C-alpha cells in the first residue's frame, strides 16, 4: 500500500467490503415488456442478409473476427436479433460489456436527455475546461459506484488505457518518493527526451501468466493470455508470475490447490524481490477472464495485498471485466475481505465509462500535466454509468445476479453430472453469473448453441464463459441450459 | 510505401490532393442565430462561482491544470461562457477539438436521432457483432471524409490509441513480410509470452524531436515535445530525428531554411539506416502542434515520402490536430503534393471519432484477432463525424477557413509590424487559421487576453497557437486582433 515506503505510515481500518442493501422487488424482466419469450432461429448464422452486409463491410473494414450482423433496434433485454431476423438469447453481451439489456428504457431516457446531447456535441477537454456539472456527475455517479474506501477517480476511454494510466500513476508515485522532494535533475530532463535512463527509468509492472489487461503497448506488455495478441509487437521487459491452476471441484482438491497457490505466491515474491527492473505495481484480475476464467481463492488475493504492501509495491485490481455486478458483488474484489483496499481499481466495459479509482492523494502526481490528455474521458459515458449504477441499485440487480447465479450454477452442476465428459471444471460458484466450464469439443458446442438460439463466448484454450447481463433471470437460465444440453448431446 | 519491400511492387499514380468543391453561400455564422455579438467579462477568470466549483471538484478529481469551469448549455458558436457568466471568444476550442461551434444545431439534431440513442445504449463490440448499419455509416461518413487514395479504416477511441494501432499495423506488416508466408515458429510463440525476442521483436518507430503523438506507452515513446509528459515513464528505445527549425519570415531565410531541412533529412536517413532496432515506420505531424507550431516545407515531406518508400519504411501522418479543415484543406497533407500518399493517416480531435486510414490490404494483418479489442471504436462518434463532414461540405467550411485564415494572417502580419517585439516568428501563411507566433511575455499576454474576453492556447516554450473552429469568420478575427493588441500593449 501507498504509505509503506514512507516513514510514519498511517494505518487504514480493516476493509469489510461494500455493503449492499437488498430490496425486495419485481423481477428485472418487468422492465422489458417487449423482450421475446424465447429464441427463434430461422437461418444459418450468419444468414444470407448478414453475409451480404459483411461482404459490403469487408471492403472498408476487416470483418474476419465477426460473428454476425445485428439489428440493434430490434434487440430487447437479454435477446439479440441478427440481420436475418434470428433471435438469440445473449449470454455474451458484447464481450461482457452490456450491463442492463438491449434498449433498456431507462438508459434510453438518459440518451434522450438534454445533458447527454450537450455532452455529445460540446465535448470538453475535461482537464482544462470542465463543465460546471462535472463534479456532480462524478459524485452522483462514478464515485457513488466506487469500491469502499475509494474517493477519487481519473477517467479515461477504455479498459486498456485505464490500466495504462494506472501504470503511469504507479511509476510517477515511485520515482517521486525516491526523489524525496528534489526537483528533476538536468540529466533526467535531457535523458527522458531520448527515452533513456534516468529520465525514463527501467521500472516494471508485474502481471500474471494468463492475465489480460489490454492491447496498447504498455497494457499489452502485461497481457499474457494468448500469443496471437502479442506476436510481432515490441514489449517491455516486465515480469509475469504464475497464476494458480486450480483443480475442480475445489472441495476435492483443497490441499493440492492450497499448495498450488503457495507455489504461485512464492514465485511472485521472488520476482518482486529480484526482477532487474524494479516493480512499481502488480496488476491482477479478480478472475482471469480472457485467459480462460481462472480463479484463485480470496486468501490468495489477501496474501498478494500483504506482500505488495510490505514491499512498497502498488496493487492494481483490474475490474474491467469483473466489475459492475456480474460476480454477485458490485466489485469482484469485495469477495476477498482484504485487510486494506487495493491502491487502484480500474474499470470499463459494463460501466461504459472507464478509468481508475484511487484512494490516496499520493497517487496524484506531484505536478500538474503529468497525467493529462485532450479529453481525459467522456462525460457522455459518465452520465450513462450514473444511470447504470442508479438502475442497478433501484432494481437490486447485484443481489438478483447473486441469486440467479446460484440457480444457474446449480443447473450447470446437474448438467455436468449428466454429461461429465462435456462439462468439465465448472467454476464460478458464489460468483454470480460469472461462470465458466471447460468443453472438450468447444467450437462444435458453441456453433450448435448458436444454431439453437444461444449466443455464448469462449475464453482461454477450452473454456466456455457465461457473461450474461445483470437482467438475466432464472427463466433465461432455464433456456440457456436447455439449448446447451441439446448442443452437447448432438 | 507498402510494396517496396516486396518484389513486383505495383506503382501508384501521382497523388494530387483532395479536390474541394467551392460552393457560394451565406456565412457560416448564419447557423448560429444566438451567437453573442462580442465577448463580455464581468469577473476575474476563474471567477467566484468557477472557483467554488473547482474546489468541490478538487476533492475527487485533479483540477490543477484547469482554466475555468464552463456552462456548456450557454455556449453558442465561437463563444464559450464560463460558470460566472463571462463570455469569451474561443480560439482554442477544447484544444482544437470542437469543429463546428458550441451547440451546433445540426449536430444537436444528430445527437437527438434514434440512431444516436441506439448507439449510446447498445454499444457494440464492433469486431464481433457490428450493427447492420456500420458499413453504411463508414461509407457515408469516415470514408467519404478520407484523404484521397484511402479506402479502409480501423476505428479507435482517441488520437493516442489511433497512433498505437498504426504502430501495431506497421510492426505486424514488417514481420509478416519477413516471415514470407511461414507460420509462427515455436520459439516465437513461447518467447512472446515472456515479452522477449523473437516473438516480441525489438523494432522501432521513428519520430521527430518536438513531435507529439500521444501519452500512452507506445505513443509516448514517439512523443518528444516536453519532458513533463515523459518523466518517470518507461519508454522504448526508439529514434528521434531533428525537425527543421525554420527562421521567419520564410522569404528572408530561404537558403538557411533549405539547408536546415537538408540537415534534418540527412539525419533522418542516417537514423533509418543505422538505428539498432529496425525502423518499421516513421510518424510525423504536418505541423508540430503541441511542440510549438513547427512547420516544414512541402518539399521536406515529399522527401520523407520518397525516403521511406525507398527503404521499405511505412509513413504515418498524424493528422490528429491538423485534420478536418483548419489548415484550409480537409487534411493538411494535401498541401504537399506527394508523389504517393502516406501509408496511414491517423485522426481524432475535430473528427470526434478516431482511428487510422490505410489504403493497402497489406496493412490488414494476415490473421484475424491481431488488431482487435472489445469496442474497436465508437459508432456514436462515427455518426457525429458523418454529420461534421456533411456540414463542412454543405457550408464550404474548408474553403471559408482558407479565406478567413488569409484575412487573419494579414491582420497578424500588420499587428507584428506594429509590435515587432511582441509578435515574433508569425507562421501558418496559407494554412487556414492554423496560425501561431512567438510571444516573449506569453503567460502575461494569455492572461490579459483572457481577461479581455479571448480564450487562446499556448504550445511549445513560447508560442501562442490559434485554433479557432471552422465557423470562425472575419468578424471574429477582428475581435481577436483587437483583444490581442490590447493585451500586448498593456
TrEMBL record, chains A, B:
InterPro entries: 4NH2But_aminotransferase_euk, Aminotrans_3, Aminotrans_3_PPA_site, PyrdxlP-dep_Trfase, PyrdxlP-dep_Trfase_major, PyrdxlP-dep_Trfase_small
Signal sequence range: none
UniProt similarity note: Belongs to the class-III pyridoxal-phosphate-dependent aminotransferase family.
GO MF term list: 4-aminobutyrate:2-oxoglutarate transaminase activity; pyridoxal phosphate binding
Protein name per Swiss-Prot or TrEMBL: 4-aminobutyrate aminotransferase
One annotated GO biological process: gamma-aminobutyric acid catabolic process
Transmembrane segments: none
EC numbers on record: 2.6.1.19
Source species: Beauveria asiatica
Gene it is expressed from: UGA1_1
Amino acid at each position: 500500500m501507498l504509505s509503506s515506503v514512507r516513514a510514519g505510515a498511517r494505518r487504514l481500518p480493516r476493509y469489510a467490503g461494500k455493503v449492499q442493501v437488498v430490496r425486495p422487488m419485481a423481477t428485472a424482466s418487468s422492465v422489458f415488456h417487449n423482450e421475446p419469450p424465447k429464441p427463434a432461429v430461422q437461418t444459418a448464422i450468419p444468414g444470407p442478409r448478414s453475409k451480404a452486409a459483411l461482404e459490403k463491410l469487408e471492403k472498408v473494414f476487416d470483418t474476419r473476427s465477426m460473428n454476425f450482423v445485428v439489428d440493434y433496434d430490434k434487440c430487447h433485454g437479454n435477446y439479440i436479433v441478427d440481420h436475418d431476423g434470428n433471435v438469440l438469447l445473449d449470454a455474451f453481451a458484447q464481450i461482457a460489456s452490456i450491463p442492463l439489456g438491449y434498449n433498456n428504457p431507462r438508459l434510453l431516457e438518459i440518451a434522450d436527455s438534454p445533458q447527454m446531447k450537450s455532452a455529445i456535441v460540446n465535448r470538453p477537454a475535461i482537464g482544462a475546461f470542465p463543465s460546471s456539472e462535472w463534479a456532480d456527475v462524478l459524485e452522483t455517479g462514478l464515485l457513488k459506484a466506487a469500491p469502499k474506501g475509494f474517493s477519487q477517480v481519473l477517467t479515461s476511454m477504455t479498459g486498456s488505457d485505464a490500466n495504462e494510466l494506472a501504470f503511469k500513476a504507479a511509476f510517477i508515485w515511485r520515482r517521486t518518493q525516491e526523489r524525496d522532494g528534489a526537483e528533476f535533475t538536468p540529466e533526467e530532463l535531457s535523458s527522458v527526451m531520448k527515452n533513456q535512463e534516468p529520465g525514463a527509468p527501467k521500472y516494471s509492472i508485474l502481471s500474471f501468466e494468463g492475465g489480460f489487461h489490454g492491447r496498447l503497448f504498455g497494457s499489452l506488455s502485461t497481457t499474457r493470455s494468448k500469443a496471437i495478441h502479442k506476436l510481432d509487437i515490441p514489449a517491455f521487459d516486465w515480469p509475469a508470475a504464475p497464476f494458480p491452476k486450480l483443480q475442480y471441484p475445489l472441495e476435492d482438491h483443497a490441499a493440492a490447490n492450497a499448495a498450488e497457490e503457495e507455489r504461485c505466491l512464492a514465485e511472485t515474491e521472488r520476482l518482486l524481490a529480484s526482477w532487474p527492473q524494479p516493480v512499481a505495481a502488480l496488476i491482477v484480475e479478480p478472475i482471469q477472464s480472457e485467459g480462460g476464467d481462472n480463479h484463485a481463492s480470496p486468501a490468495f488475493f489477501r496474501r498478494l495485498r500483504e506482500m505488495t504492501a510490505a514491499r512498497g509495491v502498488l496493487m492494481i485490481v483490474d475490474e474491467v471485466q469483473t466489475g459492475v455486478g456480474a460476480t454477485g458483488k458490485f466489485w469482484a474484489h469485495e469477495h476477498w475481505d482484504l485487510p486494506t483496499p487495493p491502491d487502484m481499481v480500474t474499470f470499463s466495459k459494463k460501466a461504459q465509462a472507464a478509468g481508475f479509482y484511487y484512494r490516496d492523494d499520493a497517487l496524484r502526481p506531484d505536478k500538474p500535466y503529468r497525467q493529462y490528455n485532450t479529453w481525459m474521458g467522456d462525460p457522455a459515458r459518465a452520465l450513462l454509468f450514473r444511470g447504470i449504477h442508479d438502475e442497478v441499485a433501484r432494481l437490486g440487480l447485484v443481489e438478483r445476479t447473486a441469486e440467479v447465479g446460484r440457480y444457474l450454477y446449480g443447473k450447470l452442476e446437474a448438467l455436468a453430472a449428466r454429461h461429465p465428459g462435456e462439462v468439465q471444471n465448472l467454476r464460478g460458484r458464489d460468483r454470480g453469473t460469472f461462470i465458466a466450464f471447460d468443453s472438450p469439443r468447444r467450437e462444435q458446442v458453441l456453433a450448435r448453441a448458436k444454431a439453437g438460439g444461444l449466443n455464448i463466448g469462449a475464453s482461454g484454450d477450452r473454456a466456455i464463459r457465461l457473461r450474461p447481463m445483470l437482467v438475466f433471470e432464472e427463466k433465461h437460465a432455464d433456456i440457456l441450459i436447455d439449448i446447451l444440453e441439446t448442443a452437447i448431446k448432438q
